[in-house]
Amino acid sequence: MKKSIFIALIMVLPLISFAQDDKKEESKFKLDFSGFVKNDFFWDTRQTVAAREGHFLLWPKSVLGDPDGKDINDKASFNFLSIQTRLSLGISGPDAFGAKISGKIEGDFFAQGNLNINLFRLRHAYVKMNWTNTELMFGQYWIPMFITDCFPGTVSFNTGTPIQPFGRNPQIRFTQKLGKLKLIAIASSQRDYTSRGADGVTGGYLRNSAIPELSAQIHFAKEKALVAGIGASYKQIVPQIETGQGYATNESVSSFNSIAFLKVKTSAITFKLEGVYGQ
Q1: What CA–CA distance (Å, rounded) separates 234 from 252?
Q2: With CB atoms counted within 10 Å of each terminal CB, which end of the chain scores lower, N or C?
Q3: How far is CA 108 from the centre of its chain?
């Protein structure tokens, strides 16, 4: 009987050990739920060019005269919206390949277009691998031309659009720190923010090129007092794979853009400057 109990204890001990190891692994996973409820109340003195029922303001509509010479667009409007209400999930997990692993899923009710406003849409969804001076990110994130350290701080939600490039797309982003410098290389596709062409607004033109949009940037930062950088992107699209006469075609259109930015922050003011060139 004593021998049986001894053997049973030997068999149970490894199970207890494995269970403790599993708990240690589980404890390395962390979920952080966050978000906010946002309500916007706005009143415009005239008709506007905007998206999402006036929420994403672009510019006031120009004068449109009727037969009597009255401006049709000289008409005020208002709206109340809660579509910016946001949900976010931060994720951290055990180290892998010597890197810290983290991720984020974020969405709101802004939707992908005017026709489905109020529906949930994906903003960010990415995984990061962080080493001491290197970061590798996979997933949906800000487009390369939107610099998170230097963008317009506008009252309107438009964040400087259409002058400021704005959007989020799936990508692979590699960042290497060299002292105060950051070297960034990005390969990105298109999802909610796509090219326009003969078939309408779609990411198919870029997909059919079989080449992602390629970007490279150099950032310089001196703590939070000074941020500066330059960057460029190259994109190739295939507008169609069949001609109007029914023949196969592989003709492509290539373009590039560049950006330079500077932010200087003092205790009293923050100065931002950005220049964008696109072909």
Answers
A1: 13
A2: N
A3: 13
E strand or H helix that includes residue 3: helix 2-27
| Two tokens, residue 59 | 């510019």
Q: In whole angstroms, what is the distance from residue 81 CA to residue 22 CA? A: 46
What are 211's two structure tokens? Answer: 């080449």
Asked if residue 196 lies in contact with residue 237, where contact means CB atoms within 8 angstroms, the answer is no
- For residue 162, is the peptide bond before it cis, meaning its omega torsion is within 30 degrees of 0? yes
Q: What is the mean pLDDT of each run of 10 residues along the chain (279 residues)?
A: 46 47 65 96 95 92 96 96 96 94 97 89 97 98 95 88 92 97 98 88 94 98 93 96 91 96 94 94
Q: How far apart are CA 36 and CA 42, in angstroms?
A: 19
Cis status of the peptide bond prior to 60, with omega within 30 of 0: no
Indicate the residue type of 103: G
